[in-house]
Each structure stands twice: as C-alpha cells, then as structure tokens.
Amino acid sequence: MLKKIDVAQQFLVKNHQLFACPKCLTKMDVHGQELICQNHHSFTLSKKGTLFFLEKKMTTEYTKEMFLHRKNIIQQGLYEPLLSEIAQMMIPDAPVLDVGCGEGSFLEILGKNISAAKIGFDISKEGIYLATEQTTANTFFCVADLTHLPFSNQQFGTILNIFSPSNYHEFARVLKPGGQLIKVIPNQFYLKELRQALYTGEKATYSNAPVLKKLRETVNILQEKNLTYTLPTSNFTFSDLVKMTPLSWSADEKQLAELFQKPFSTITVDVTVAICQL
Ligand SMILES: [Zn+2]
Fold first, then answer.
1. pTM over 0.90
2. Strand-strand pairing, 139-143 and 51-52
3. How far, in Å, from the CA of 19 to the mean position of ligand 1?
4. Are strands 42-44 and 266-277 parallel, antiparallel or unpaired?
5. Ligand 1 mean position to 39 CA, how many Å?
6. Which residues hold their Cβ within 5 A of ligand 1, which is an ion?
7. Phi and psi for 246 in degrees, rounded to 5?
8. How far apart are CA 236 and CA 74, in angstroms?
C-alpha cells in the first residue's frame, strides 16, 4: 500500500494547476515532495501528505478533541438529511473545494460520487491531520488561510462552505465561470436543545441575520432552502453531541455534569442551504 505522502504527491503531480502560491499567486510546479512557485516559494508535503500554507499561526476555537467528537456525530448520522440535500446539488465532474473542512468528514461523504479532484482546507493543523484518515479517493487536504487561498483563478466547480466563515472575494477568484458556492448557515433553532441546556438569556438564542444579510448583499443566490429536522438523542453518543461544538467550551463543569445526568431527548438541526453564483 502506498504511504499517505506518496498518494498526496501523485495528487499534486496530477492537479498542480489547481494551486497557486499564497504569497505571490504565481503558478506552482511539483519538484519531488515540494510545490514550488515561479518566485521559488516552496511548500513541502508532511508525512501525512498535507501542505502547510499559513504564513503565521492562526487561532481556532476547535480542538483535536472537538474534531473527533464531530467526526463521530457525523458518522452517527446527525447531518445525513442535510448531506443528501447537498449531494444532489454538486457538479460531479468539476473540482470541489471544501472551505473550513475541519476533520474532513463532510468532504469524505460528499466526495464519494465526485470523480474530479477534491481539496479541503482549514486553519487547524489538528483538523487537517485527522482529515487524512478519510477514505474517499482523489482527495487532498491542506492548512490554509481563507483570505489568501493557495489556489489558481477559476478552477473549482463547487465551493462547499458548511458552517464555516467566508471570503467572497477569494471564492469569486477561484471559482470557474458558472461554478457554484454551496453555503450552509445555521438557523435560529440549530442545536437549540444544547444551547438552551447550557445557556440562559442572550446566549441561549442565536440569530444568523448578519451572515444572511452579508450573503444576500454579496452574491447572487440561485436557490435558498430552509431545512429543519429533529432526531432523538438516543441515535447518538451523548457526550459526542455535547462536545462537538464550541458551545460546550464556555459552559462550566457543573452545568456539563448536570447535563450528563439529565440529557435532553431530541436534537434539532435547522439550517439555510444556499446555492450561489459570484
Ligand atoms: Zn510565490
């Protein structure tokens, strides 16, 4: 069996045209296990077959532990209805970019029927290392900054932006003509049972209004859909459910202990899915 680094090197040889230097935006070529731009900026594959494009360390509220809980919950099916919705919207033969892919579970599932190259990136090295354990073929992961994408102009048919921040200027640059952005935004009742169990007052509620407003002002929305469903928590490992989001981070130990004693019985997913052109 090929090592991860060799699989990744083969991916780069085949798909180096997708990449551009994040420092100077010139095209990149593969030399051994390095990707080198026209101005000799070089990026070396890690043993796990990932590339690191960040100029400086960036902070994220996601920890390795959180990514592992998230991976379990996705495998246990919390997002299945959402993911089947998105799967129908994807273009099968054009490269896919997953923005803020975390541990890569969404791209692993959504990429199964996509023959073209798939790239996921995140600012978290921990997330990206975990992502290399996924099994969907023709998929590559890197650590990169949303505001300086290490990709060439007009390459991707679909950009996935699921529960992650956006940079519409950069998305417009790397999207092919006629390409689409699929953006998923949590709505008011997203994980409401968890939010209400951990918080009171202002923090117990959530509004996506600023995010939606920005989206509507910036892009051309071709289709917008609300998707809301509630599942029994008995479908899931309760601790995974509680610990998969930054929501549980600022909760105190006493509250968490009480929650585990008296778990809530249902969990709600409430999201907006928008297909957009830029
Ligand atoms: Zn460069």
1. yes
2. parallel
3. 11
4. unpaired
5. 5
6. 21, 23-24, 37, 39, 41
7. -65, -10
8. 10
CA of 52 to the centre of ligand 1 (A): 14
Contact indicator for 18, 119 with CB cutoff of 8 Å: yes
What are the Cα distances from residue 151, in Å, to 2, 25, 87, 107, 182?
Answer: 26, 8, 23, 18, 18
- Write down the pLDDT at residue 203: 76
Is residue 214 a contact partner of residue 183, using CB atoms and an 8 Å limit? Answer: no
pLDDT above 90 for 62: no
Q: Does an H or E element contain 97, and which? A: strand 96-99
pLDDT in tens, 139-166: 999 999 999 999 999 999 999 999 999 9
**Is 17:35 a contact under the CB 8 Å cutoff?**
no
CA of 18 to the centre of ligand 1 (A): 14
Torsion of CA 215, 219, 225, 227, to 10 degrees: -40
Short-list 116, 115, 138, CA closest to 49: 138
Burial class (CB in 10 A: 0-12, 13-18, 19+), 44: exposed
